[in-house]
Each structure stands twice: as C-alpha cells, then as structure tokens.
Design a protein that fits this description.
By secondary structure, the protein is of the alpha/beta class. The N and C termini lie far apart (62 Å). The protein is 30% helix and 25% strand.
Length: 505
C-alpha cells in the first residue's frame, strides 16, 4: 500500500546494517535497529487507538527513540505534532486542546499535569525520557519489528507545526506528505547530499530546520548523522573533523567563531555549512570564510513552506542574501497594500508558491484565507527584494515577530501577559540586537497611576506561563509609549532607544 513519505525516506533502509546515527559518546545505531524500534512504536500507536489522520502530540527530549517516533507516525499515517521542549504546561494546553491530539507523549516530569489536560478531551498520555525510556517503550517492547504501513496519499497530512500568530494565538500549519517529501528530495539534490555525507546534527527536532530539513535531507540521500542532544561547543569541536556537513542557526556560527579552537584545520573534512531560520549577518559570513576558507550557504524558509530559496552549491554564495528561489518554487515581491507584483529591485512582501507550500491553518479558515491566496501564493510576512542577479535579500518583516537564536517569539503573546500584571497600564515588547541570539526581547512598561509595577514579580509571573526563551531579557518602565498620529505604538522608536542594551560598546 502506498505511503510516499515512508516509501521514499524509510523503506529503502529496511534491513540495512549501515550506520544511520552516531551518538555523542560514539555509539552507532544502524538503519535496521532504528527502523525496528520505529516499527514497534508504530504498532504501539495503533494499539493505543491511533488511526490514520489522528494527531500525535510529542514534547520529548531529542534522542534516537524520539526520532523513531517520527518514523513510527509516518508509517502509521498519524499526524506528527512535535512541540518545543521549553513550552510550559500552560502553553501545551492550547496545542493539545486545539489539535485534539489523540495521544500525548511527554517527559515523565510533565506526565501528571498533561494527563489532566488530555483527560478533558478524552486523550491519553505516555512518556519517553531523555534516555529513550518510558511507558511508550514498555508498551512497544514486545511488538513486531515489521511495519504495518498505513495507506497514505501525497496530499494527506503528515505533520502539524504550530506557529504563533500576531494576535497571540498559535496556528497549526498543516503539512502534507508531498510538502515534506518534495522539499527533502529537492534540497538533497540541490545541496549535493550523498550516502557519503555525515551531517553534524545539533539542532532540536521539533522544528522545520532540525526535522524536515536536516533529518529528511539525510534520509533522502542515504547519509548518516552525528546526532547530538543539543549544541555544545566542546562536542561540536570534537565532532567537526568526523563530519562532512552541518546545518545551524546563525548563533551556531557566531558561537563557533568565538572559540579559538575553531580554525581551518578543524573544518578541512567539511564540504558544506548551511545557515537558516534567522538572518546571518554578512559580517559573520565574511569572518567565517576568513577563518575556515568555507563560504556558509544561507537559505530561507519557514514552517508553512519548508525551504523557499537557497544560495547556490556551486555558484557564488553571496553574503547577506538568501540566494535564488529553489527549482519549482515561484517567488515574487508584491506591494503589501495592493498585492500587485513589484519591479526587480523594489522592496515589498515576499510571496511564494510551490509543492512546498502548506495546506492552511488547522480549523482557521479566515487566517488561512488572509495569508494563502486562492491562486496558491502564500504571503510570508517577510519583506525583501530581488536584485539584478536574481538573489533574494530579506530586508525586514511585515509581521511583529522577534527571532531569538532561531526561535520565533511573538510580542503580542508577551504583551497580553504584561498588560494583566498589577501596576501595568500598558506595554510594548520589541526585539533588540543581541550578540549571541541575534535578537532578544525587551519589555517596555508604562506604570498605571496608582500602583507602581514590581518588575521581579512580573518576571516570576511570566516564568509560570511562557517558555524560557520568550522571557524578556530586560524589563523597563517608561513614562509613555511613543505613538503616531493614528495612535499606533511606534515600535521602531523603542527598538532604536534600547538598541544598545546588550551590544558590547
Ligand atoms: C536558550 N535560551 C534562549 C534560547 N535558547 N533564550 C533566547 N533564545 C534562544 N534561542 C535560554 C536558555 O533557556 C537559558 O536560560 C539561556 O537562554 C542560555 O541558554 P544557553 O545554554 O546558552 O542556550 P542553549 O541551550 O545553548 O541554546 C541556544 C541555541 C538554541 C541557539 C543553541 O536556542 C537552539 O538550538 N536554537 C535553534 C532553534 C531552531 O532550531 N530553530 C529553527 C526553527 S525552524 P537561562 O536564563 O535559564 O539561563 C525555522 C524555519 C527555517 O525557523 O527557516 O529553518
Ligand atoms: P518559522 O515560522 O519558525 O519557520 O520562522 C520563519 C521565519 O524565519 C521566516 O518567515 C523569516 O522571517 C525567518 N528566516 C528563516 N530563514 C531566514 C534567513 N535565512 N534569513 C532571514 N530570515 C530568515
């Protein structure tokens, strides 16, 4: 029975004793061992009542077993919904509820609190810890190591990835099998991945970058991965000489550059460094080349579309640009007010169309209609221009969004919480430059007339609600927020005012 994603990315390796994953301590896991574990998980999912089209929400630490759950979901035809491990219970409640996830897999520490949430919608909770142990493994242990592959079509949904909205409510981006598969195959070829490749994988596997770009590209090419739980500079330095390729957010590159051990010799076995998820400063690109002789290949994508553009593998990788639209991806620059296409060189909103573009937002037809045009073009919310040589430059965002270390943070979500705190009349949250994370969060508060806000208490309140990476790294009180004649807060003025908060002088 057909299941294109399984047939192309996993089935070719059934029975293969070739190494698929090498772990931090040097242990290797073959494709065969990985897939046997995945097959057992897949039977466990079925026995737990999941049927094709059901949602499986997972908030688990990165491990080979965690990745095997992804393979299991694909085989079982279940929609995979990975969640950032930093999310608090209060954030998770929304995702579980909104997706009506039939099963939640989480770390043992969250089992009790999530069981309460899951119970309300008639779902179950199983566990998997950072060492790959937990109740799901116990259930799977005696199951068959042969897959029962669910019948799925190219247009069937394979994953939901939640992406926050400018109103503060997250939207489940629905990705089909074909969205994921077509992009993985395209990128594998474009970046010339082969079975000889060893990808140094230190990204989280709950986002597009670490899961659908890094992992799927390796699966599409037959290569292997050095699979690390997270970015750790010493481990990276140890593993770079054993790798051929790496994918990272710009913070990976600035951290490597700030380590004196990182030099030309350490990277001589590498053929490719890829950057994305946030802007790579041209300065970082130039420093990297000077230090190692390698030119970082920058590409541009997003949750809703997978990858849209890439600098060339063989041609000129131009610093400060995200390269050309990928084959089969149409990209145009349009007037944000009228939607009409602009001339070469003009700045406007970036719109994309292709097999990579998602199906819409789960149960949010009005939001889907606002961003995904009837003719298939998706309005990315990024602002850019195309230069005379066809290179795309991203010059800003038409959406109120902060990207910190590759994680998206929506100011509105934080402002809603700040506004509720005692002593706060109103607030504005802005992103300012940060030497490690690229951008970071500053919360600007106007005190109300009677009580003065207690910043420590406000920080504590935020801690209980929002993931750590979203917390303002600075909270300040101002007399008033700058506004234009229409009464709109002028965030650009606040960004300018606090621009030097974290940058070395
Ligand atoms: C961790 N912290 C962050 C943070 N990551 N704060 C802001 N932004 C981040 N990205 C917090 C920690 O909780 C900690 O809090 C403090 O900052 C310092 O932590 P650290 O140990 O220095 O950070 P580390 O764990 O090393 O993580 C940094 C990182 C990580 C950059 C390695 O964030 C990361 O792996 N980012 C990758 C994100 C990613 O994969 N994005 C792809 C999205 S897909 P405290 O205060 O308790 O010390 C996408 C589409 C596309 O965008 O195009 O790819
Ligand atoms: P996400 O919703 O997490 O997938 O984040 C997608 C957003 O990250 C895009 O809309 C861009 O704003 C940003 N992004 C991704 N890659 C790049 C890049 N190479 N340069 C600049 N911004 C990028």
């Amino acid at each position: 029975m057909p299941n294109p994603l399984f047939d192309e990315l996993f089935a070719p390796y059934l029975g293969s004793s070739q190494t698929f994953l090498t772990l931090a301590d040097g242990t290797t896991i073959s494709h065969d061992a990985f897939l046997k574990q995945a097959a057992q998980f897949s039977h466990a999912l079925r026995d737990l009542g999941l049927r094709p089209g059901d949602r499986l929400a997972v908030q688990i630490e990165k491990s080979p077993e965690a990745l095997a759950i992804y393979a299991a979901a694909v085989a079982a035809g279940v929609i995979f919904l990975p969640l950032n491990t930093a999310y608090t219970t209060s954030e998770l409640e929304y995702f579980i509820d909104n997706s009506s996830a039939k099963l939640v897999i989480c770390g043992p520490d969250k089992q009790e609190s999530l069981a309460e949430i899951a119970f309300k919608i008639g779902s179950n909770v199983e566990t998997l810890d950072a060492h790959g142990q937990g109740s799901l493994v116990d259930i799977a242990r005696d199951k068959s190591t042969k897959f029962h592959v669910a019948d799925r079509g190219a247009d069937d949904l394979a994953a939901f990835l939640y992406t926050s909205g400018t109103t503060g409510r997250s939207k489940g981006a629905m990705l089909t099998q074909d969205n994921l598969l077509s992009n993985a195959q395209l990128l594998s070829e474009y970046w010339q991945f082969t079975s000889e490749d060893v990808l140094l994988h230190a990204l989280p596997i709950f986002h597009t970058h670490g899961l659908f770009v890094a992992t799927n590209v390796v699966l599409a090419s037959g290569g292997s991965m050095i699979f690390l739980p997270q970015f750790d500079i010493d481990q990276m330095i140890d593993d770079l000489p054993k790798s051929t390729s790496m994918m990272g957010v710009p913070t990976f590159y600035t951290r490597l550059l700030s380590d004196a051990r990182f030099d030309k010799q350490l990277t001589q076995h590498m053929r490719l460094f890829i950057s994305g998820s946030a802007p790579l400063l041209a300065e970082t690109h130039i420093q990297f080349e000077a230090r190692t002789g390698h030119r970082i290949l920058e590409r541009y994508g997003m949750t809703e579309t997978n990858m849209n553009t890439s600098n060339p593998y063989s041609g000129e990788r131009r610093a400060g640009t995200v390269g050309h639209p990928l084959p089969g991806v149409e990209l145009k620059i349009t007037d944000p007010a009228k939607g009409s296409e602009l001339a070469v060189g003009e700045i406007g909103q970036i719109e994309v169309r292709g097999r990579n573009v998602f199906k819409g937002y789960w149960q949010m037809p009005e939001k889907t209609a606002a961003e995904l045009r009837e003719d298939g073009f998706f309005i990315t919310g990024d602002l850019g221009r195309i230069d005379a040589d066809g290179y795309v430059h991203i010059v800003g965002r038409n959406k109120d969004l902060i990207i910190s270390g590759g994680y998206n943070i929506y100011p509105k979500e934080i402002e809603l919480i700040l506004d509720e705190q005692p002593g706060v009349q109103e607030s504005a949250v802005v992103g300012v430059p940060h030497p490690d994370f690229g951008e970071t969060v500053v919360g600007v508060i106007v005190a109300d007339d009677e009580t003065s806000p207690d910043l420590k208490k406000i920080s504590d309140a935020i801690s209980g609600i929002l993931a750590r990476f979203k917390h303002p790294k600075k909270l300040v009180i101002v007399d008033e927020l700058p506004r234009n004649t229409m009464g709109k807060v002028q965030k650009n003025l606040l960004r300018d005012r606090f621009a030097d908060s974290f940058m070395p002088h």
